[in-house]
Amino acid sequence: MSNTAELHGFPVGFFAEEMTRAFLAFIEASHTVDVASPDGGKVMYDTHSDPRTPGGEYADDLISLGFVHHQKFGALLEDTIALDTVSVADYDAVWVAGGGGPLLTFKDSPVLHQLIAQFYEAGKVTALICHGSSILLWARLSDGQLLADGKRWTGFTDEEEQAVNESFGMTLNDYTIESEAAKNPNTSFRHRGLNEPFAIRDGNLITGQQQYSSGITAQLVLEALEELD
Questions:
Q1: Distances (CA, A) of 176 to 15, 33, 100, 156, 165
Q2: CB 61 within 8 A of CB 51
Q3: How far apart are CA 20 and CA 135, in angstroms?
Q4: What angle do CA 40, 121, 95 make, to 5 degrees?
Q5: Full pLDDT tens readout for the chain, 229 residues
Q6: First-to-last CA distance in the chain?
Q7: Coil, strand or helix at 46
């Protein structure tokens, strides 16, 4: 997940549900899960998605609330693994959460771009959700080709960006995934309606549209992992 960044004067991190719902699905399926970020160290739920936010929209997100208060799991957010210490060979899959941070912190993180490309080229399950799929705008394979070329994928849409902008009364991001993806004639960015659950699997690349897609995207990951066994 993203390290903390500043957006219009307030701190942003990763969208809580986009990590915690998948985390729960994976451990319930008896997988071991590590938590990492580009720089390592402490990370935070986006205030918007944090169920502890007074009067917040996601106060009923019991999974994220339970995670952050769990003695073992909550501590993982205090000291995430730095990506430059991660070996692809040690894992079967990678999951990238979205949120307010990724459009700010992922674009200029070559270690992240390279790691995601390495997971994909190694035949490992490579999953990205919401703003996490922004990595596909930049990640290149070892031959220099964009990972997204020839792929079907999804992420946070322009319609969803506009809805968030209207909610906050300002334009939050300088660019959007859907608009940037449209500049690549060799890729296929697909989506459904506003806040509609949607996920795509294209080989070992799995993407989800937004937080409401966390469950179905995680299920596609579990199905792909079963095929590896």
A1: 17, 30, 12, 8, 12
A2: yes
A3: 20
A4: 40
A5: 999 999 998 999 999 999 999 999 999 999 999 999 999 999 999 999 999 999 999 999 999 999 999 999 999 999 999 999 999 999 999 999 999 999 999 999 999 999 999 999 999 999 999 999 999 999 999 999 999 999 999 999 999 999 999 999 999 999 999 999 999 999 999 999 999 999 999 999 999 999 999 999 999 999 999 998 7
A6: 26
A7: coil
